[in-house]
Each structure stands twice: as structure tokens, then as C-alpha cells.
């Protein structure tokens, strides 16, 4: 999961440094936001106070998307609708053997934190990497539009295997009142990984596929 290049990129994300050399739209948008806003390691604990910042970012992103060809006017075909999760509407894209996810970023205090999370996911889990297609607005709500490989399950996931893999890569399972949770923390990198349960990880051919992750850049005291 980790190598020196990945580790260097992760450190730059935590620092809020512009990521040089990458030409994908996701990184481009993230870098655009970094020119005006800073990456925070306390944003998760200060969620509500960042609502105004998120609104400011949304306005800038709409202008940016319209000027850079990333504004989408037609939503996915409703006949291809699969599910509505906590933050995303999911559609099947048969032609590309993938799913299209419309994500409103509700789990994140700012849009910058959302794009940081997506890029971290792509670095750590390239077999389910997201491709950012653009933005769409529906009923006054701004959504990012992402494509992700469609993965089917051939057996039930064992969360003990998930914990073992994450532990090997420096992620410690967080405890609450002495009991394990679905949240993990990489102390060295300052990254929280949340909501890792049996619907967000799929097993196929004895390989774990992380399909929905929520990352935060946050240094904890313990």
C-alpha cells in the first residue's frame, strides 16, 4: 500500500503543499483550492465553524468548473440508479464497468478536505481509484461526479483481515471505551480513516477492495 513516493505525496497533502506533476482533474481542483485555503489538521473537531468556508469554496468551484470544462449539466440516467448512501448517489455505468457517484461532501467540513480524502484514497487504494469527472448542481446542492471501478463480492469480508492489512500499513484501530470501532488512525502521517465496515470493503479473489473511505488530516493527542 505504501512506498516512498506515496509517503512523500501524503506528507505534502497533510502540509497543504501543491502537488506537482499530476494532471488528473481531482489533483488540479485540489491544488486550485490550496491556493486560497489551507489544509487543517483540526478541521474535523471544528466542523460547524467551517460551514462558511465550505460555502465560499463551493462558489469558487462552480466558477472554476464552468471555466475549465468541468461543469456537468446532465445527470446520470435514472434507470441506472443503484443506491443512495450517506453522502453519495450511485449509478451503474455498464459501458465502462464502473459506477458513477454523485457526492455532496457532507462528511467533510470543507471541499478541500473532501478532495484531500479522494486523493489519499487513490494513493492508498489504486485498485478502486476515483476519476473526477466534474461538478453538477441539483436542487441547489453541489455534487462532485466521480467514476470508480465496479467490484463484485465473491465472499463475505472478515473485518479481522481488514484490520490486519491496515495495521501492517501503520493504521491503528481506534478504541471507544475499550471497544474497537470502525475508525483507524495513522499517527506517523496524521491521517484518520473512518467508517470501515463490511459494506465499504469488498472481497474478490481473496483481495480486499476499499470502495468507500473517509479520510481526515488530523493529529490526535492519543
List the helices and strands and how they pair.
Layout: H1 4-15, H2 25-34, H3 51-67, E1 81-84, E2 88-93, E3 98-103, H4 111-124, E4 131-138, E5 141-149, H5 159-168, E6 172-176, E7 179-186, E8 191-194, E9 201-204, E10 207-210, E11 214-217
Antiparallel strand pairs: 1-2, 2-3, 3-5, 4-5, 6-7, 7-8, 8-11, 9-10
Helix pairs in contact: 1-4, 2-4
Properties at a glance:
about 220 residues, alpha+beta, 2 domains, 5 helices
Rg (CA only):
17 Å
The geometry reads as: globular
Return the average pLDDT rounded to an integer: 91
Give the strand order of the largest sheet, numbering strands 1, 2, ... along the chain. Answer: 1-2-3-5-4
* Low-pLDDT residue spans: none
Helix content: 25-40%
Order of helices and strands: HHHEEEHEEHEEEEEE
Structural class: alpha+beta
Separate helix tally: 5
Largest pleated sheet: 5 strands, antiparallel
Approximate strand percentage: 25-35%
Overall number of structural domains? 2
The count of strands amounts to: 11
The rounded distance between the terminal residues' Cα atoms is 24 Å
InterPro entries: Kinase-PolyVal
Pfam families: Kinase-PolyVal (PF18762)
Task: Explain what the structure shows.
With 222 residues, this protein is α+β, with helices and mostly antiparallel strands. The protein folds into 2 domains: 4-71 and 80-149, no CATH class; 159-217, no CATH class. Helices cover 28% and strands 28% of the residues. It is built from 5 helices and 11 strands. Strands 1-2-3-5-4 form a 5-stranded antiparallel beta sheet, with helices on one face. The chain has a 4-stranded antiparallel beta sheet with strand order 6-7-8-11. A two-stranded antiparallel sheet has the order 9-10. Strand 6 (172-176) and strand 7 form a beta hairpin. Helix 1 (4-15) packs antiparallel against helix 4. The protein is globular and about 45 Å long. The two termini are 24 Å apart.
